[in-house]
């Protein structure tokens, strides 16, 4: 049997750590999970954890980035077949709100990420993922004359905040139809008359 390369061992160890941490963070939240539990669940040593990550927060950052990338890919796939800009926005919102109902997303992305990474760290990752999708959609809608925006980046941040808050509300038990209707009304206010 051929020996695994250092790169394969690194990838395997990091994968085991992120998978174990992701499960534990989703189930109990960042603060309630110790590094000892993570390494035990991953089947690696404490030294391996600290070889790959400076601390638990760095591991959490990697987990959050992974979940955000998956959410972004899922929303982009949902909007890909939309016939026009407005339909893409509607499908994107619906898809995102569905995703926010997953306990893993509520715990890792909506609850722990802002607290663990701080606003700037959270937004840095959001800029590459959710904010990036919203910015692209708004830029396209502005170019098509559907939305008037003095600043797409500022508007995208505000839309992200509204969509994220809607997701948090629904995940915490607010009536889905009521929240989605209110969010849709808000977003339709962006459409040029």
From TrEMBL:
DNA-binding region: 34-53
SUPFAM superfamilies per UniProt: Homeodomain-like
Single GO term (MF): transcription cis-regulatory region binding
Single Gene Ontology BP annotation: negative regulation of DNA-templated transcription
Domain of life the protein comes from: Bacteria
HTH tetR-type domain boundaries: 11-71
Assigned keywords, A-Z: DNA-binding, Transcription, Transcription regulation
Record carries keyword Transcription regulation: yes
One family name in Pfam for this protein: TetR_C_41
Full protein name: AcrR family transcriptional regulator
Organism (species): Kutzneria buriramensis
Lineage: Bacteria, Bacillati, Actinomycetota, Actinomycetes, Pseudonocardiales
């Amino acid at each position: 049997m051929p020996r695994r390369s250092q790169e394969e061992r690194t990838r395997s160890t990091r994968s085991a750590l992120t998978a174990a941490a992701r499960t534990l963070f989703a189930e109990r939240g960042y603060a309630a999970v110790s590094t000892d539990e993570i390494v035990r669940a991953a089947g690696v040593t404490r030294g391996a954890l600290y070889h790959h990550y400076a601390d638990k927060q760095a591991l959490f950052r990697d987990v959050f980035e992974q979940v955000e990338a998956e959410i972004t890919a899922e929303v982009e796939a949902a909007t890909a077949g939309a016939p026009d800009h407005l339909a893409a926005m509607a499908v994107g919102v619906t898809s995102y709100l569905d995703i926010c109902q997953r306990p893993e997303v509520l715990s890792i992305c909506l609850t722990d990420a802002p607290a663990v990474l701080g606003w700037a760290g959270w937004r840095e990752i959001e800029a590459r993922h959710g904010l990036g999708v919203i910015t692209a959609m708004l830029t396209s809608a502005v170019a098509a004359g559907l939305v008037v925006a003095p600043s797409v980046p500022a508007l995208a941040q505000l839309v992200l905040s509204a969509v994220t808050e809607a997701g948090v509300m629904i995940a915490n038990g607010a009536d889905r139809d009521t929240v989605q209707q209110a969010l849709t009304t808000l977003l339709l206010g962006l459409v040029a008359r």
